Fold this sequence. Notes:
Radius of gyration: 18 Å
Distance between the termini: 34 Å
CATH topology: Small Protein B, Chain: A
Shape: globular
Amino acid sequence: MTPGQDHKLVQRNRKAFHDYSVLDRLECGVVLVGSEVKSVRAGNVSIKEAHGRIDGGEGFLLNMNISAYDKARENHDPNRKRKLLLHSRELRRLKQQLQEKGLAWIPLSIYFQKGRLKVEMGLCQGKKRHDKREKMKRDDARREMERFVKRGS
């Protein structure tokens, strides 16, 4: 999802698009404490190593690092397990899909929508090394063609 007028992009997980093929996308809310929200608004968040998991009929985001907020009296644990807000039918469908071999639930971007923090989660399949090389070759060829077209005009 690209942020529109009512979206404020905080961070995009470019590593996820390099390492995985995105099969499906899902927007989720995140349960945070006050100091975490302030820290995210300041841009002190990293979703590079984060992933999602379903435990006991609830979705959780693991390894999302939200740095401590300087001005808070009581700070939070930076790498704590954070609950994702999803409908039960979405959770059931997702749990079924995640049981397939080789699929992962990865955060693609984190943004504010109407003042609420949202995470765009992707159902992803890992790319093999040769797939990554093929994509790099295609991207290089596309860039070379664009350069050639610009020089010719």
